[in-house]
Amino acid sequence: MIRTLIVDDEANARETIADMLQMFCPNVEIVGQADSVGSAFTEIQKSKPELVLLDINMPDGTGFSLLKKFSPVPFEVIFITAYEEHAIKAFKINALDYILKPIDSDELVNAINKAAISIEKDENRETINKLLDSLNHYNKGEKQIVLKTAESIHIVNVQDIIRLESDRNYTRFFFADGKKLLVSTTLKEYDTLLSDFGFFRPHHSHLVNIKFLNRYEKADGGYIVLKDNSTVPVSSRKKDILFKLFDSL
C-alpha cells in the first residue's frame, strides 16, 4: 500500500480525491489530509507519506514552497493544478507529473501507477529533487529542460541542444559536446515545448536550434547544414520560413 497524503486548500477537492482513490486505487492508503503549506508540513512529519498529492496554490504559499522545506524531499509528488497554458508548459519542460482540475479519474489512476513504479524502484527522492532544482532555474529565466532516459534523469541547458530527431515514439537529442540522449517522448511534444526557445522544425522528423544553423544547400531537394556538420532535410512548405530565419540572424 502507498501511504498517501492529500494537500489541497479546498475541502471539496480533498473529498473528491479521497473518494476517487478509494474507488479506483486499491493500492493507496490515505494517511492524512492538509489544507495549507503549514499543516501539510506538520502532517508530513507525523504520517511519513510515500506520496503527496499536492495542490499548487494555497493561502500561505505554494506546493513548491512546501517542498523547499525538505532537503532532500523524502516522498513522491503528484501536483494538482488548474489549467494554465504557461504553467503546464513549465511542468512538461521539467518532467513534473501533474493532474489538471477538474480531476479525471483515469488521469489520477495513471499518475498513481507511475508513482508506484518510482517508489518501488526507490527513484522518487532523486527524481523530485532534481526536478525541483530544475524548476528553480526555470523560474529564474534560465533555459533548462529535464530529460528522462531509461537509465537516468538529465537536467540540460536548452542552448546546448543542437537538434532533435524523431525515432518512432522516441526522440533522440544531439548536444554541442557530442553527447546523445534517447527519450521516450515524441518529437511533436518537444516541438511545442521548445518553440519559445529558438527551435525550428524544418521537417516532420527534425527539430533544430536556430543558433546552430550554418547554411542551406539546394542540392537533393534542399537541406540544412548545422555547425557540427550534421545535415537535416527541409520540407518544401518550410523553406520560406527557413529563409526568413536566415534573414533575421
Low-confidence parts lasting 5 or more residues at pLDDT below 50?
none
- What do we call the CATH topology of the largest domain? Rossmann fold
| The top level CATH class name of the largest domain | Alpha Beta
Q: Average pLDDT, to the nearest integer? A: 87
Q: What profile does the largest beta sheet have? A: 5 strands, parallel
Q: Percent of residues in beta strands? A: 25-35%
CATH level-4 homologous superfamily of the largest domain = Response regulator
Instruction: Indicate the overall shape.
Output: elongated
SSE map:
Blueprint lengths: L1 E6 L3 H14 L3 E7 L2 H11 L3 E5 L1 E2 L2 E2 H5 L8 E7 L2 H9 L4 E4 L3 H16 L3 H16 L4 E5 L4 E5 L3 E7 L2 E6 L4 E4 L3 H8 L4 E5 L2 E4 L3 E5 L5 E4 L4 E3 L5 H10 L1
Parallel strand pairs: 1-2, 1-3, 3-6, 6-7
Antiparallel strand pairs: 4-5, 8-9, 10-11, 10-14, 11-12, 13-14, 15-16, 16-17
Report what the structure shows.
By secondary structure, the protein is α/β, with parallel strands linked by helices. The protein has two domains: 2-138, 3-Layer(aba) Sandwich (Rossmann fold), CATH 3.40.50; 146-248, LytTr DNA-binding domain (OB fold (Dihydrolipoamide Acetyltransferase, E2P), Beta Barrel). Helices cover 36% and strands 33% of the residues. It has eight helices and 17 strands. The protein has helices spanning 11-24, 37-47, 63-67, 85-93, 105-120, 124-139, 187-194, 239-248, and strands spanning 2-7, 28-34, 51-55, 57-58, 61-62, 76-82, 98-101, 144-148, 153-157, 161-167, 170-175, 180-183, 199-203, 206-209, 213-217, 223-226, 231-233. It has a five-stranded parallel beta sheet, sandwiched between helices. The protein has a five-stranded antiparallel beta sheet with strand order 12-11-10-14-13, with helices on one face. It has a three-stranded antiparallel beta sheet with strand order 15-16-17, with no helix packed on it. Strand 4 (57-58) and strand 5 form a beta hairpin. The radius of gyration is 21 Å and the shape is elongated. The model has no long low-confidence stretch (mean pLDDT 87).
